[in-house]
Amino acid sequence: MTTTTSLGAAYHPFAGAHVTDPHPFFDGLRAQEPVTFNPVLGMWLVSRYEDVCAVLRDARRFSNRDMLSSGAHLTDEARAILARGYDTRHVLLGMDPPAHTRLRRLMNRGFTRARIAAMAPLIARVTHELVDAFDGHDHADLVEQLAYPLPVHVILGVMGVPEEDVWQIKRWSADWQGLAFEPIPAEDQPAMAEGVLAFQRYCIELIEDRRRGPREDLTSYLVHAEHEGERLTEHELVLAIGASMLSAGHESTTALLANTWKVALEQGWWERLREDRSRLLPFLEEASRWDSVSHGMVRTAVQDVVVGGVELPAGSRLMLLFASANRDEAACPHAAQLDPEREGAARANLTFGRGTHFCLGAPLAKLQFEIATNALLDRLPELRLVDGQDHGVWQSLVLRQMRHLRVAWTPR
User: Fold this and answer.
1) Do residues 165 and 53 make contact, with C-beta atoms less than 8 angstroms apart?
2) Residue 236 in contact with residue 365, Cβ under 8 Å?
3) Which one, of 2, 3, 180, 23, lies nearest residue 91 by Cα?
4) Buried b (16+ CB within 10 A) or exposed e, 221-249
5) How far apart are CA 29 and CA 48, in angstroms?
6) According to a count of CB atoms within 10 Å of the terminal CB, is the N or C end of the chain lower?
7) What letter would DSSP give residue 64?
8) Is the dihedral of CA 176, 55, 354, 227 positive or negative?
């Protein structure tokens, strides 16, 4: 029988201990209440790896359709403003097959292995320019000075967006993601909704410019991409460029970079990575499993279902707790231990998603990690965390992030 139980009701997803260190609570969920209701979210928390993967594999019974309307409880005024633009819910992340299959097929061709590899010189140039600004000192904030600016400059450079527009787009992106995934106060929502519309207008102008004169950038590719006579509509282009690329293309990478560096420095792996660079990508995979920045994803049951032995009626919304499932001993023995040399870390890692919604930008995020981390290891080999700092950890519905990662070193 479905019941609201004590552990589910105790979960606070946006503040407090469940954000700064969620794993003790997640351990209890998996052991005692693996599928349980949380009234704050109005969703069922699904915490075990097997149950999460079962839902992710079953697109017929579990829909993505409400994914992009899961965070803020929008006011009537905010809804009215957003209604003047394209429906922001209909992005790749919020679609089901067959519509998702068609759009993903067209977008995949922009993220081939060769295209990703061709982005390396841009990533390296931006990385070294950013490190140049602080390596002559004896301290830095790796979030503010590297993990935050690098991904946005990279994805916007790849898209062909002018340099002078970068920070305005970053602000519009925050508006879009905030309204989708965060509990935004009512008084702040109208201005953020206007920011989403401004972002969409910017994307329309960018699309029209590339129709008139294609360039060697990803925007031009998407505008002119064709497969078996199919092309992206303007609605699809605006949301593909705005949400899937310019917005999602950097926020999650910022979180991934910063948290992986923090884990390496805290857990004594920085020196080992410096000595053996072949360990970089295995370390990224294991560190992102062990302390995932991907809090989870939302699905909606389209019919009566049973998940983890719990009966849920049609319309139930499920919060699939990736960060909890990544620590499930049933899928990854000794999961609470950080072991970059373990076998199968990538197979047990849900940080980049699973199945049809596996992260389109994962290879680009991994390449940025590899290049940026190599640069830090080369130029600041004695890096150490500043003691007693507040990382300013915060969490949206889908992503856990830090505002600060303060480090120090002895100048050469």
Assistant:
1) no
2) no
3) 180
4) bbbebeeeeeebeeebbbbbbbbbbbbbb
5) 8
6) N
7) -
8) negative
Are 120 and 83 a contacting pair, CB within 8 Å? no
Report whether pLDDT(313) > 80.
yes
Residue with tokens 């552990």: 7
Q: Which two tokens stand for residue 56?
A: 């992710």
Please tell me the distance from the alpha carbon of residue 119 to that of residue 156, in angstroms, as a whole number. 12
Tell me the CATH class for 6-408: mainly alpha
Confidence at 1, pLDDT banded by 50, 70, 90 = very low
In this predicted structure, what is the pLDDT of residue 104?
75
Residues 80 and 68: their CA atoms lie apart, in Å, by: 17
Distance CA 43, CA 13 (A): 11
Say how many C-beta atoms besides its own lie within 10 A of residue 85's C-beta. Answer: 19
Q: Using N-to-C axis directions, what is the helix angle for 120-132 and 149-159, rounded to 10°?
A: 140
* 317 SS3 class: strand
- 158 and 123 Cβ atoms separated by less than 8 Å: no
For residue 237, CA distances in Å to 157, 221, 295, 298 come to 18, 11, 28, 24
| Helices marked H in 225-353 | 234-239, 248-266, 270-275, 280-290, 322-325
pLDDT of 244: 64
Query: Which residue reads 């309204």 in tokens?
Result: 179
Beta carbons of 402 and 393 less than 8 angstroms apart: yes
Domain ranges of the chain: 6-408
Q: Which residue has the tokens 């070193």?
A: 409
Is 360:244 a contact under the CB 8 Å cutoff? yes
**Percentage helix, strand, coil, to 5, in the chain?**
55, 10, 35
Instruction: List pLDDT tens digits, range 102-117.
Output: 777 777 777 788 888 9
Query: For residue 310, what are the β-bridge partners?
Result: 307
| Longest Cα–Cα distance in the chain | 65
Which residue in this structure is represented by tokens 């935050």? Answer: 148
pTM of the model: 0.89
